[in-house]
Amino acid sequence: MESDAAREDRRGRKPAVGRAGFGDLQVVFLTPNTLCSLSPTMLSTLTRAQFEHACHRYVETHSCQQSEVKTHPSGWLWQEHPYVSGLGYLARTVYLPRTNEPEAEAETDDATELADSGVSDDESLAASPEELLACKQYIVYSPTFEVPAFYFTIHGSSGAPLPLNRITESTLFRRHALPSANDNTFALTLPDTSLALLSQGDHPTLGTPSWYLHPCHTSEAVGEILAESDGRNGENGLRWMEVWFMVMGNVVDFFAGNQ
Fold first, then answer.
1. Are the C-beta atoms of residues 24 and 14 closer than 8 Å to each other?
2. What is the pLDDT along the chain (259 residues), one digit of tens a residue?
3. Residue 240: helix, strand or coil by DSSP?
4. Which residues pair with 153 in a beta bridge?
5. Cβ(145)–Cβ(159) under 8 Å?
6. Structure pTM?
7. Taking each helix axis from N to C terminus, what angle separates 236-248 and 48-62, rounded to the nearest 10 degrees?
8. Could you count the other beta carbons within 10 Å of the beta carbon of residue 38?
9. How far apart are CA 166 and CA 134, in angstroms?
C-alpha cells in the first residue's frame, strides 16, 4: 500500500514529459547523444540544439538521392549566421514553373500551338527561361513554438517579388491547399477566423523580408504522428524532420521545380 509520504512525493513531482514538450527534460538536455536516447513520443517540440542536430542528420541522410523516385525533399544545406553562432538554418533554392491554376487553360492552348508548329517542349523551355520563378526556401527554428518553421521568398524573372495572390497560385503550394488571397496583400487567413496561415515577416537569422507558414499547430501534428511511430530511438532526430516534411508537404510541394 502506498504511504502518505509517497503520495505527497508523487503529487508534488513535475511530469518528466508533457504533450507540449519535454517538461523537465528540456532543462537537462546537453548533447545530441541525449536526444538519441529519447523515444519519439517525447519529441513534440525541439530545443535549438536538437533542431540543429536533427537538421544535420537529415542533410547527411537525404542530401543526395540517386534514385529517380524521390522519397524525401533533397538539396538542403546547413547555413550558419556569419557572425553569431547558434543561429543556423537549412536553405536551398528551387526554380518553379510560374503558375498552377489560373493560366492552365492558356498553357494548354500554347502547348497545342507549339505542337502544331513542330516546336518541341525542350526548345520552348529554352526559349522562355523567364517563365521560371526563383524560390529561396528556409527551415528555421522558432523559439516561440520550439519547432521548425518554413520561410521563403519567391521572385519573377525581373527580380520583383510576387504578390500574395500569385504566390498562392504558384506551384510551390499544393493545388487547393490554401484559401483565396482575395484582396489581402500581406497575410493569408483561414476562412471565418483571424488566424494567419501565411504571413510576411523578417527571416529570423538573415533579417530579410520573407513569407512564412505559421507554425502554431506544428507541435501537435508532428507529435501525434511520432507517438504512433515504431520508436526508432537512435534515429529520432532524423525521424522528427522526416515527419515535419510529411506534415508540411500537405500544403507545400517540396518536390516542385528544379534546383
1. yes
2. 544 544 444 444 333 333 333 233 222 222 333 333 334 344 589 999 999 999 999 999 987 666 566 789 999 999 998 888 889 999 999 999 876 544 444 444 444 444 454 544 444 444 354 579 999 999 999 999 999 999 999 999 889 999 999 999 999 999 888 887 766 788 888 777 667 889 999 999 999 999 999 998 899 999 888 888 755 544 578 999 999 999 999 999 999 988 8
3. helix
4. 136
5. no
6. 0.72
7. 80
8. 17
9. 13
